[in-house]
Design brief:
This is Archaellum component FlaC. It is built from 2 helices and no strands. It has about 60 residues and is mostly helical.
Protein backbone atom coordinates (compact mmCIF):
# COMPACT_ATOMS: atom_id res chain seq x y z
CA UNK A 1 0.00 0.00 0.00
CA UNK A 2 1.13 3.49 -0.75
CA UNK A 3 1.57 5.51 2.43
CA UNK A 4 3.70 8.34 1.14
CA UNK A 5 3.97 9.42 -2.44
CA UNK A 6 7.01 11.28 -3.66
CA UNK A 7 8.04 12.87 -6.91
CA UNK A 8 10.07 9.76 -7.74
CA UNK A 9 6.98 7.50 -7.63
CA UNK A 10 7.35 4.48 -9.93
CA UNK A 11 4.44 4.49 -12.39
CA UNK A 12 4.90 0.78 -13.06
CA UNK A 13 3.06 0.27 -9.75
CA UNK A 14 0.20 2.60 -10.66
CA UNK A 15 -2.32 -0.05 -11.69
CA UNK A 16 -2.08 -2.02 -8.46
CA UNK A 17 -1.80 1.06 -6.27
CA UNK A 18 -4.81 2.76 -7.87
CA UNK A 19 -6.86 -0.40 -7.48
CA UNK A 20 -6.02 -0.63 -3.77
CA UNK A 21 -6.60 3.07 -3.15
CA UNK A 22 -9.96 3.05 -4.93
CA UNK A 23 -11.09 -0.02 -2.99
CA UNK A 24 -10.17 1.65 0.29
CA UNK A 25 -11.94 4.84 -0.78
CA UNK A 26 -15.10 2.96 -1.76
CA UNK A 27 -15.08 1.09 1.53
CA UNK A 28 -14.71 4.27 3.53
CA UNK A 29 -17.36 6.21 1.63
CA UNK A 30 -19.86 3.37 1.82
CA UNK A 31 -19.39 2.97 5.58
CA UNK A 32 -21.36 6.16 6.20
CA UNK A 33 -18.94 7.27 8.91
CA UNK A 34 -18.76 11.05 8.71
CA UNK A 35 -16.24 11.68 11.50
CA UNK A 36 -13.44 14.15 10.93
CA UNK A 37 -10.92 11.28 10.93
CA UNK A 38 -12.89 9.48 8.21
CA UNK A 39 -13.12 12.64 6.13
CA UNK A 40 -9.38 13.20 6.47
CA UNK A 41 -8.70 9.63 5.34
CA UNK A 42 -11.07 10.08 2.37
CA UNK A 43 -9.23 13.28 1.43
CA UNK A 44 -5.86 11.54 1.75
CA UNK A 45 -6.98 8.68 -0.49
CA UNK A 46 -8.42 11.05 -3.08
CA UNK A 47 -5.19 13.05 -3.06
CA UNK A 48 -3.11 9.92 -3.58
CA UNK A 49 -5.34 8.77 -6.44
CA UNK A 50 -5.09 12.19 -8.08
CA UNK A 51 -1.31 12.31 -7.56
CA UNK A 52 -0.80 8.96 -9.27
CA UNK A 53 -3.23 9.84 -12.07
CA UNK A 54 -1.44 13.13 -12.73
CA UNK A 55 2.10 11.82 -12.31
CA UNK A 56 1.50 8.79 -14.53
CA UNK A 57 -0.85 10.54 -16.98
CA UNK A 58 -3.85 8.28 -16.36
CA UNK A 59 -6.91 10.43 -17.08
CA UNK A 60 -9.41 7.62 -16.42
CA UNK A 61 -8.21 7.40 -12.80
CA UNK A 62 -9.07 10.99 -12.02
CA UNK A 63 -12.31 11.58 -10.22
Amino acid sequence: MVDQLESNYDCSNASDDLHQLKQQLASLTSSGNSSQESQEEINRLENQINFIANKCDIPSAKQ
